[in-house]
């Protein structure tokens, strides 16, 4: 496991801290790395797969679409906070885009030898959640009152029991997909989660061909993936971008905040 040496160690509450009055938390004897609450947010963008399944988020190790408005939204929410991602999502970022700047990048891998330059590698979701709330010394300017789990499918499924809020960009498009997000709408129907807010449907702005070409570095377009999935990768056919009819932002929260699982390591 790779650790960032600038971080302080995590400590369980001292026995004498148990049962203290609420305003004791302002006691100057407390250190920055004492146990503190942290809000766990999940964020993803999803569309419908070509076979009609909702929650499509990835294909061929990349994103099935390129939507700059979503990337801007993602950045505005996650900036200055810790971000937790799976090893495959880390590898899906182009080398120029990783680590995600002005965020504490934490990567989960079961491989103890795995290195991710500019990020800290841990071996479990619990270790990632624990690390995310530890202040670094000296102060790195990262705000550890909340963290963002940014994918992919395996990590979203692991993180959901710990999540307070989920932020979904709903994309109206059909895409080739091999990775899916948790079915958050089913959880709403089951009464475990509720929609807090949603924007209306918005139209994506036109993207210039030059920007599209750059975007291909970190994006797998739908028909390129279909060729690859069928074992008939065509080098002659230029991949076409996915047709996005609209997008909207939908925010969810748990109906019972007490049901959030606490990370115990
Ligand atoms: N649309 C979106 O918003 C969005 C967001 C993010 C990603 N994506 C897409 O999602 C896809 C990647 O998702 P994915 O599900 O295939 O992979 P992933 O969740 O990104 O990464 C999976 C890997 O993370 C490690 N890992 C995860 N949980 C672990 C645990 N509990 N303990 C130890 N290691 C753990 C393992 O790495 P090792 O194999 O090294 O052990 C595992 O193979 C890509 O296509 C990406 O583009 C989409």
From TrEMBL:
Keywords attached to this entry: NADP, One-carbon metabolism, Oxidoreductase
Gene Ontology cellular component list: cytosol
Domain of life, source organism: Bacteria
Span of domain DHFR: 39-254
Ranges of compositional bias, category Basic and acidic residues: 1-22
Pathway where it operates: Cofactor biosynthesis; tetrahydrofolate biosynthesis; 5,6,7,8-tetrahydrofolate from 7,8-dihydrofolate: step 1/1
UniProt-listed GO biological process terms: dihydrofolate metabolic process; folic acid metabolic process; one-carbon metabolic process; tetrahydrofolate biosynthetic process
Segments for region (Disordered): 1-30
Pfam families per the UniProt record, alphabetical: DHFR_1 (PF00186)
EC number annotated for this UniProt entry: 1.5.1.3
InterPro entries linked to this entry: DHFR (IPR012259), DHFR-like_dom_sf (IPR024072), DHFR_CS (IPR017925), DHFR_dom (IPR001796)
Molecular function via GO: dihydrofolate reductase activity; NADP binding
Protein family according to the UniProt entry: Belongs to the dihydrofolate reductase family.
Protein name as annotated: dihydrofolate reductase
GN (gene name): dfrA
């Amino acid at each position: 496991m790779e650790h960032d040496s600038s971080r302080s160690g995590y400590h369980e509450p001292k026995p004498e801290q148990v049962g203290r009055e609420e305003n004791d938390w302002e006691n100057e004897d407390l250190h920055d790395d004492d146990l503190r609450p942290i809000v766990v947010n999940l964020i993803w963008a999803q569309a419908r797969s070509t076979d009609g399944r909702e929650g499509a988020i990835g294909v061929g190790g990349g994103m099935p679409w390129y939507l700059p408005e979503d990337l801007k939204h993602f950045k505005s929410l996650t900036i200055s906070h810790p971000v937790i991602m799976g090893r495959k999502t880390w590898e899906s970022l182009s080398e120029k885009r990783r680590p995600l700047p002005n965020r504490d990048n934490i990567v989960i891998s079961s491989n103890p030898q795995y290195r991710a330059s500019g990020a800290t590698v841990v071996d479990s979701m619990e270790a990632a959640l624990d690390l995310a709330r530890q202040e670094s010394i000296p102060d790195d300017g990262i705000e550890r009152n909340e963290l963002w789990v940014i994918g992919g499918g395996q990590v979203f499924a692991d993180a959901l029991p710990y999540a307070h809020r989920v932020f979904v960009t709903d994309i109206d498009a059909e895409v080739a997909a091999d990775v899916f997000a948790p079915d958050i709408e089913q959880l709403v129907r089951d009464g475990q989660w509720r929609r807090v807010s949603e924007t209306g449907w918005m139209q994506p702005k036109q993207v210039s061909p030059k920007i599209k070409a750059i975007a291909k570095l970190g994006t797998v377009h739908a028909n390129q993936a279909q060729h690859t999935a069928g074992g008939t990768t065509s080098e002659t056919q230029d991949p076409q971008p996915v047709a996005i009819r609209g997008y909207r932002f939908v925010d969810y929260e748990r109906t019972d905040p007490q049901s959030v699982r606490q990370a115990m390591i």
